[in-house]
Fold this sequence. Notes:
Blueprint: E1 4-7, H1 13-25, H2 28-36, H3 45-49, E2 53-58, E3 61-70, E4 75-83, H4 92-106, E5 111-116, H5 121-126, E6 130-137, E7 140-148
Parallel strand pairs: 4-5
Antiparallel strand pairs: 1-2, 2-3, 3-4, 5-7, 6-7
Amino acid sequence: MRIDIRAALPGERAELEDLQRRASLAIERYRADLEQHPEAIQLPLAQILERRVHVAVIAGRIVGFSAVLPKADHQFDLDGLFVEPAQWRNGIGRELICDALECARTHGGTAIDVLANPYAEIFYEKQGFREIGWAETQFGPARIMRRLL
């Protein structure tokens, strides 16, 4: 199965938000909160226009996306990584991480951080991220994890 990664297009925003919603609702722990706060699912158009959002495509179909945002001091945030639930455990998330790391490196990055929900912590650990702290989010605490580049 060939996975292509490319920059998202502005016209794909709604499709990406729908994918984010499906992936988020697939985790039972967050379902009730997300149903009460559907506004939590949003992908700023500016991120797409700035080419900060990349999509994973298989056979012409978008199956995942990531958003990598710059911070201060040559650091970046993996602001989002979502994969179609039916495609989980097929290497799509790993390919999106590889692409995110390369994007950060290309722009002079030295580290990339992510707020990892409890269901994704092991995935991020396998990708070389390590815990550096905790943060309070809209839906509860999350580990802050960092990968040095």
